[in-house]
Amino acid sequence: METLHRYWDYASRMVEMQLNLLGVQTRDERGAVSTEMAVVIAAMVAIAVAAAIIFIAKARSNANAIPDNVPPPP
Fold first, then answer.
1. Considering only Cβ atoms within 10 Å of each terminal Cβ, which end of the chain, N or C, has fewer?
2. Residue 15 counted as domain residue
3. What angle do CA 9, 11, 14 make, to 5 degrees?
4. Which residue range forms the structural domain that includes residue 31?
5. Of residues 73, 57, 74, 53, the one with CA closest to residue 65
6. For residue 66, what are the CA distances in angstroms to 31, 41, 61, 74?
């Protein structure tokens, strides 16, 4: 669980850094993440999770489509 927490911290900091490079202010004067940025980050995470699920499902279906017995070449 500790490893997952570290990865989450790293991912959220990378998203925040990229948004700051684009000129989007992610923190207010007190340093807290704004509600709008929390919603944007949550939406981006949801899209990434959906894409990963689709990718894994497609990879599994392709792996299951590989025939077990391949005839030798003529």
1. C
2. yes
3. 105
4. 2-63
5. 57
6. 53, 38, 9, 20
In a domain, 74, yes or no: no
56 found inside a domain: yes
- Count up the domains in the chain and report the number: 1
For tokens 């709008």, name the residue: 36
Say if 39 falls within a structural domain: yes
Asked whether the whole model's pTM tops 0.85, one would answer: no
pLDDT tens digits along 6-57: 777 777 788 878 777 777 766 666 656 677 777 888 899 999 999 999 999 9
For residue 32, what is the DSSP state?
P
